Amino acid sequence: MTNSEATDRVLTEVEAGRDEILAFTASLIRIPTVNPPGECYRDCAELIGERLSGSGMDVEFLEAQNRPEHTAEHPRVNVIGRLEGMASRPCIHLNGHFDVVPPGDGWKLDPFGGEVRDGRIYGRGASDMKSGIAAAAFAVEAIRRSGVSLSGSVEISGTVDEESGGYAGVAHLCKAGYLAAERTDYVVIPEPFGPDRICVGHRGVYWFDVIAEGRVAHGSMPHLGRSAISDIGVLLHEIRTKLEPELASRISVMPVVPEEARHPSINVNAVWGGQVSEDQQSPCVADRCVVTFDRRFIPEESLDEVRREVAQVVAALEQEDEGCAFRIEERMSVLPTQAPQDSPLISALSKAIRKVQGSEAELVASPGTYDQKHVSRLAGVDHCVAYGPGPLEEAHQPDESCSVDDIVISAQVMALVVLELVG
Questions:
Q1: Taking a C-beta distance cutoff of 8 angstroms, is the pair 122, 115 a contact?
Q2: Rounded to an integer, what distance in angstroms lies between the CA atom of residue 204 and that of residue 298?
């Protein structure tokens, strides 16, 4: 069989499986794998495992036994399938997370219905990223049905907890050696950037708390205390009027989308202090207030610089008012990451998109992090990108959806990439 014949057969098999791909996507959406707290992970892992096993893959379930998130009530269960060709290398790994954020309010359709309307499938995870998992699974199934033999190996994994950092998911696979430079050459993560975009990396993140310590007093005599909430208010004003304009003046050469995200940013994720609940009165001056910040930074900024910049804002306020007392506590930090510009994986994806779509691929970078951070840092695999169906803008939104055509196209592209790199 010539390369051209193999390509045509695989593309035909993906298109012929359109209804099966859609049905599998709907089945995934109907399992409410909500994180937090991590519902129904085992059910979803088993469904994916059944699909991979049907494609002739050797399937293994991996529980993150060493992680505190892994409990009897909410076990962290990952699944990985491997199809070995004539040799174990080269190996391409297709990875998708199956946890989803809570549905929230504002839905017109059942968030876990997997309903299809006007060529789109709806539900939490339709875009982010159960459609991507289905596309990856059927990319490999189409190769099997076409009768094409592989020289190397292909793996598919369904992992947990990406929405909360991925530490019991992809990070666990990396630390356990299932994703490692010694055995893995290429990784594709079918996150929702659309069928004509290749996401080559992401910005960095620095999550941290600033805790203000005040002095408690009776609410009727606030002059006897010091409000930690007021002190946080002053800090927020400094961030908004001084740090935010400075960040807006910086711009990255990294092709982050949307365009506004090429600038670094800082967001207030949460503020809490004072009385413990809305329905429980507490006639006291708040002696403690905590604000959680989400600072996204670009490759042109170092993590040390980001930390120092925040510390300088806090220190300046303490110097101006000796009664101010702040403390910074770090929650998480992730460095920016980017695949090499000359990566064979980017070249293979670009070629496949040109074949299937008849257009040139757009290289982009993500405003937020995803599991590429673990693949790069822990596994040491640099040739990692995100490519998959779905509009990024619909992720985490009410009535989240994905075009059925995009799922099929993405499956075709991923199948051709597998043929190009390990076929």
A1: yes
A2: 6
pLDDT band, residue 78 (cuts 50/70/90): very high
Per-residue burial over 16-54, b = 16 or more CB atoms within 10 Å of its CB, e = otherwise: ebeeebbebbbbbbbbbbbbeebbbbbebbbbbbebbee
Q: Which residue has the tokens 């006639």?
A: 283
Beginning with the edge strand found earlier in the chain, give each strand of the sheet holding 288-297 in spatial order.
265-273, 288-297, 204-213, 326-334
Phi and psi at 334, nearest 5°, equal: -135, 130
Annotate 319-340 with b (16+ C-beta within 10 A) or e (fewer): eeeeebebeeeeeeebbbbbbe
Q: Among the listed ranges 166-175, 276-285, 357-366, which one has the minimum average pLDDT value?
A: 276-285
**CA-to-CA distance for 270 and 408, rounded, in angstroms?**
39
Q: What are the structure tokens assigned to 384, written together?
A: 């990692």
Contact 367, 423 (CB under 8 A): no
Residue 282 pLDDT class (50, 70, 90 cuts): confident
Q: Kindly give, in sequence order, each residue whose CB lies less than 8 Å from that of residue 246, ignoring residues fewer than 6 positions away.
A: none
Taking the C-alpha atoms of residue 397 and residue 106, their distance in angstroms, rounded to an integer, is 9
Average per-residue pLDDT for the chain: 96
Q: What is the pLDDT of residue 390?
A: 95
Beta-bridge partners for 187 = 93, 384
Cα separations in angstroms, 193 against 28, 341, 358: 19, 18, 18
What is the rounded radius of gyration, in angstroms, for the C-alpha atoms of the chain?
24
β-pair type (186-189, 204-213): unpaired
Question: Which amino acid, one-letter code, is at 127?
Answer: S
- Whether this prediction's pTM lies above 0.90 is answered by yes
1 to each of 4, 13, 215, 348, 351, how far by Cα in Å? 8, 16, 79, 20, 20
CA gap 122, 119 in Å, rounded: 10
